[in-house]
Amino acid sequence: MKIHTIKYLFLALFYLSCFSNYLIAQSFNFSYFNVPEGLPQSSVTAIYNDSRGYLWVATAGGGVAQFDGKEFICYSERNGLAGNIVTGIAEDNEGNMWFTSTWGGLSKFNGRKMITLSENDGLNSINNHAIFIDTKNRIWLGNDSGIIIY
After folding, report:
1. 3-state helix, strand, coil in the chain (%, to 5)
2. Is residue 94 packed enough to be buried (19+ CB in 10 Å), middle (13-18) or exposed (0-12)?
3. pLDDT, the chain, mean
4. Which of 34, 77, 111, 126 has the most crowded Cβ, counting Cβ within 10 A?
5. Residue 144 clears pLDDT 90, i.e. is over it
6. In this structure, is residue 4 part of a structural domain?
7. What radius of gyration, in Å, describes the C-alpha atoms of the chain?
8. What CATH number is associated with residue 126?
9. How sure is the predictor about 122, in pLDDT bands with cuts at 50, 70 and 90?
């Protein structure tokens, strides 16, 4: 009985030593992106992965950037974005990208053109903090006045 126990213990130790490389904690590889790598500003407020595989990065002062895995394309007030302090990102059922901004309003990007919506278009506040698009393609905005559904 004792020989079987020692035999199994020896086999267990042998297998553990063979696979010990797999038991060691894996190291993590981090990549860093900032202004020198193409971000419009270093303070990131939101990140969204769209249906086409692009990564959208919202910043607190530089607008929003579209990342294809290699380079950033930046959009700001100069390109028609409602405001450069972007607080939220969402995608509707048609593939349009929507951006909320502090003191700017709401922006829609259809892949070619940026369209801005403000209080003149019926928004109850231009100080938007959050955005969500539901399965019925309704846009839910969280702002200083509560929630608005567009």
Report:
1. 20, 35, 45
2. exposed
3. 88
4. 126
5. no
6. no
7. 24
8. 2.130.10.10
9. confident
Distance CA 72, CA 128 (A): 24
Is residue 55 one of the residues assigned to a domain?
A: yes
Count of residues for the chain?
Answer: 150
Q: Which long-range contacts (CB under 8 A, 24 or more apart) does 47-54 make?
A: 47/89, 48/89, 48/90, 48/91, 48/97, 50/91, 50/95, 50/97, 51/91, 51/95, 52/95
Query: pTM of the prediction?
Result: 0.79
Task: State the total domains in the chain.
Answer: 1
DSSP 72-113: EEEE-GGGT-S-SBEEEEEE-TTS-EEEEETTTEEEEE-SS-
Torsion of CA 68, 74, 80, 86, to 10 degrees: 90
Joined together, the tokens standing for residue 40 give 């419009």
The answer to the question of residue 114 being in a domain is yes
pLDDT band with cut points at 50, 70 and 90 for residue 31: confident
